[in-house]
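INPUT
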Amino acid sequence: MDRRSFLKGTAAAGLVGASAGLAGPALSQGAAARTLRFVPQANLANFDPIWGTQYVVRNAAAMVWDTLYGFDETLTPKRQMVEAEQVSADGLTWEFRLRPGLKFHDGTAVLAKDVVASLTRWSARDPMGLMVKALQNELVAVDDRNFRWVLKKPYPKLLMALGKNSTPMCFMMPERLAKTDPFQQVSEFIGSGPMRFKRDEWNPGARAVFERFADYVPREESSSWLAGGKRMGVDRIEWLVMPDPATAAAALQNGEVDWWENPITDLVPQLRRNRNIRVDIADPLGNIGTFRMNHTTTPFNNVKARRAVLAALSQEDYMRALVGDDDKLWKPLPGYFTPGTPLYSEEGGEILKGPRNLDAAKRLLAESGYNGTPVTCVVAQDQPITKAQGDVTADLLKRIGFNVDFVATDWGTTGQRRAMKNPVGQGGWSMFHSWHAGADCINPAVYNAIRASGDGAWFGWPNIPAVETEVANWFEAPDLAAEKAVINRLNKAALDNVVYAPTGFFLGYQAWRANVSGIAKGPLPFFWGVSKT
Amino acid sequence: MFAYAVRRVLATIPVMAIVALFVFSLLYIAPGDPAAVIAGDQATPQDVERIRASLGLDRPFLIRFGEWVWNILNGDMGVSIFTNLPVTTMIQQRIEPTVSLMVLTLCLAVSIAVPMGVIAAWKQGSWIDRAVMGFAVLGFSVPVFVVGYVLAYIFALELDWLPVQGYTAFREGFFPWLENLILPSIALGGVYIALIARITRATMLEVLQQDYIRTARAKGAGQRNILFLHALKNAAVPIVTVIGIGIALLIGGAVVTESVFAIPGLGRLTVDAILRRDYPVIQGVVLLFSFVYVLVNLLIDLAYTLFDPRIRY
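OUTPUT
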């Protein structure tokens, strides 16, 4: 018993009778052990994982909505709601059969028509889904448990698309919800996952509650990330939103919460000193820091100006600004793909390796014909990752010889401004900072930021045909060896032309109370297998 | 006085209309895009544009403003862009913690600050007076969040007497409710106590120089009677005015306090809505705060008549 419980007990004993009507409800020890209190990375402000693609929405949705396939820790898509699938010899016809006994939280059975409607909605928003949709000849429910997908052209990465963890994930909803316009929010939050969403207890910005779904039938296999048997070790999960990291740290130390998704590195030493707290890496796939240059306006419409930045860029400076002196949390990244994954490549990465060459950078800048035009560097100050990177970039650009127009703003404004294609000085921009989850940078299918298709590309709108050619080649690569060869060429083309500037690879921590077990490392918090004593 | 109160209530209508126009215009011209926030970091510009259109954010200013005003007049504050919940529901969810925090802070501050100011004035120049004034300077100088962290460290982490964060609704018991609000109220009340104590002292010093106080002393009235019956009542008008003005201070401070102690109140709702550009929520909350502020000022004006019979409306 802790001191506060003792004091409360003593006070309650003294006041019993006189204030019986004033006493609050108490959770029994058993009930407390069945409730997991979790501090998420951000506020769960909406709860439609197709409409809103923020990671926090995906993380909560993974409890409530199930998927046909799910990535395991080897990044292999494994069957989840699907019992079996069959593909024709020409690779055009896919037939799927659902597991028996699947139910939605409203008690209705999961049918093939629900899956067809869900796939249709998802494929209107997801980059891989859009590719499949473009190849689609027919998507129909054959009967209650079987559905068929007929394509005009083989798409070998189909199961990857259905099982990937990057947003928007391919979640299954009841047909009536899945028929909602993909650009509008669904009105109910009914899934078939292991937890049901308690909408009546949802207080956006403060609390979201999930309750175990008794009718969920987990797979027989042991769980691995989004694959295998999703067996819940607790009956209730409470997400408690805490905007202030110091408060979250204090609440964890005080036993008011059980698991904190993303403690900031400054507070980790303090947490490590507490014998009731465990701290470990959250996601081995980590994150890639980035700043994107605008390829459509001066000076970064000239590849020499972009390469000048890479020649002088010190990833160590960026990473130390982000994670401090903890060397376990970062590594240099002379490439674009996530370290430790099968397609990681350093081909063409020489420009980011070795001692930084400011003279070469200045030479390249002069060769680009740069005439002192202000470089509008948009930096969101309310995101620690972008702020730290922005400060390093401003110094770097000045040392190279750029005339820096540093725009300190917030993330909401950055989101709007980066979409503007106006010239600098008329609301446009030259560069902004961001970061990508490593799980979203494992291959070109889930990696929007590597694409270089001009107007259709991500902000900055790089137009580099060599990159797009290799992306197309990767989709058609027959095996891993061929994929690796393609990725080597892609990485080199992207670095030669500087699609964007990678500032390094960094990891983050998670922390939990010692009485909680079963917490896995992965690209999102997996709640199945987690229990509390 | 009834006619005056009615006139004042009616006068709030144009004030609220100006506030509404001002807030809406400010949000319209402010940079930021909720569609970009909704779409997420990986969204394409086309996705963002589709979402913006689906939210009606691509429509002209006058149409959006007219629609919003019409809905407000019909008692509908709109629906949050993000949560899809009615703004009134979101305000209802958040109003109790903020009102609780403000009321407790107000009670705490007034019950501490007024006696402090009175005693400081009575013992002018003594160590008590200097201590009170020193505390007032400290209260003004130390930011709310610093006081909050220090209190949480001492009383929650070190002593384990009180929780670090959260809020328990009043219906779940008085003590759980109080337990969650003690530290935030003290943190938020610091600057308020300092303000009221200083004003009380200054006003009391002035009143204590008046002839009628000397007369009361000459009549043999006791010190307590002189201070609290004769002097404090006559000093009440400026003190009550400052308490009213301080409500705005409390509203501003509640934003920080609610963040530090993770209290799900209107302050945090406002900050979250601003950062996400959730326009209907921002407009609704600002309108509510403005209305409360206007109402508090009216109540203060009416309260003057209780303390000073010469004031008539």
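end of record. Chain B touches chain A through 62 residues (CB under 8 Å).
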